[in-house]
Amino acid sequence: MKVIDIINEAKRPLFTMELLPPMKGKKIDSVFDAVETVREFEPAYINFTYHQQETIFKERSDGLMERRVIRKRPGTIALSAAVKNKFNIEVVPHLICGGFSKEETEDALIELNFLGIDNVFALRGDPPRGEKRFTPQENGLAHTNELVDQIMDLNRGVYLDELIQNPEPTSFCIGVAGYPEKHFESPNMEEDIKMLKQKVEAGAEYIVTQMFFNNQVYFDFVDACRAAGITIPIIPGIKPITLLSDMQLLPQTFSIDLPEELVEAIKPCKTNVEARAIGREFTIRQSKELLAYGAPGIHYYTLGKTKNLAKIVKEVF
User: CA dist 130 to 54, 56, 114, 123, 274, Å?
Assistant: First the structure.
């Protein structure tokens, strides 16, 4: 079932979440266990992230450095199919521009279509680790709206190979990301909204926001989107604080602000267990306020920590 249909037909606010593929060399069991932990709460769908390749340098026996390009978390497509088949839950694999040519992107979409997966989440992706500037792959895509364009081309039966006779169209529902505190590369919020509108005009059917901790930025973001003519559903994405280090790493990594209330509450904590309890209560309150505002649901960024999430969802939904 398409996500936009799930949203439009929902009788109650939706609970959804995001999971990561296991690190290369690890089993799929950890993901199955994570899903099983929250299965009773009936997640409407589960997103699975796609990860940019990384460049590493390894010293050879002759003393020279060898450059290698690796992907530490492969398997998004197979993992999505496995979870959908095992749990009968809709899945939304991420697709990113970074590290993929147009041909590789089309091949991935064809695989998803063959597997009966008709939901995708389109992202540009971050620069590879250690690089400050995003550079598209040769014959690749530079912006998310271009990726949405390519997906929509397949939905219209337009493939890269113009010689294909009687091509069958796909039927993908496309989600995209929104940034209530703006993308860190955007010069201002107004320009960021314009970029988001380009993704919507290209064919995106719903938006999931980057994490935020101050609900007012979501309220303002929705108002700004509506004023700009963006009418599709906007689902808030939030992340529970689970580690003491989150207080430094999240603002640095995602260019977001943390409310003083949360900062002061976490300061006395000596352990991750204490911080997690404070973060859990904050997320419960944040979730309830968002749903009271009229948000169509809550999307949780979990990093695989679904035991803590289960306690939150039990109180919220």
Answer: 9, 10, 36, 19, 33
Return mean pLDDT, the chain. 93
Domains and CATH numbers, the chain: 3-241+275-316 (3.20.20.220)
Helix crossing, 29-38 with 306-316: angle to 10°? 20
Distance CA 234, CA 221 (A): 9
Nearest to 32 by CA among 70, 69, 72, 84: 84
pLDDT digits (tens, 9 = 90+) for 122-161: 999 877 666 777 888 888 899 999 999 999 999 999 999 9
Give the C-alpha distances (Å, rounded to integers) separating 181 from 155, 193, 216. 32, 11, 11
Contact in structure between 242 and 214 (CB atoms under 8 Å): no
CA nearest 100: which of 52, 162, 143? 52
Q: Distance between CA 53 and CA 69 in Å, rounded? A: 7
Residue in the block written with tokens 């390519």: 150
Would you call 265 exposed, middle or buried from its count of C-beta atoms within 10 A (0-12, 13-18, 19+)?
middle
Tell me what pLDDT residue 73 has: 80
Of the chain, the end-to-end C-alpha distance in Å amounts to 22
| Secondary structure of residue 185 in the 3-state scheme | coil
Taking only the tens place, the pLDDT of each residue in 161-189 is 988 999 999 999 999 999 999 998 999 99
Count CA atoms within 13 Å of residue 152 on its CB side: 16
Q: What is the mean pLDDT of residues 84-107?
A: 95
Task: Characterize 5-21 residue by residue with b for buried, 16 or more Cβ atoms within 10 angstroms of its Cβ, and e for exposed.
Answer: ebbeeeeebbbbbbbbb
Alpha-carbon gap, residue 137 to 36, rounded angstroms = 37
The pTM score is: 0.93
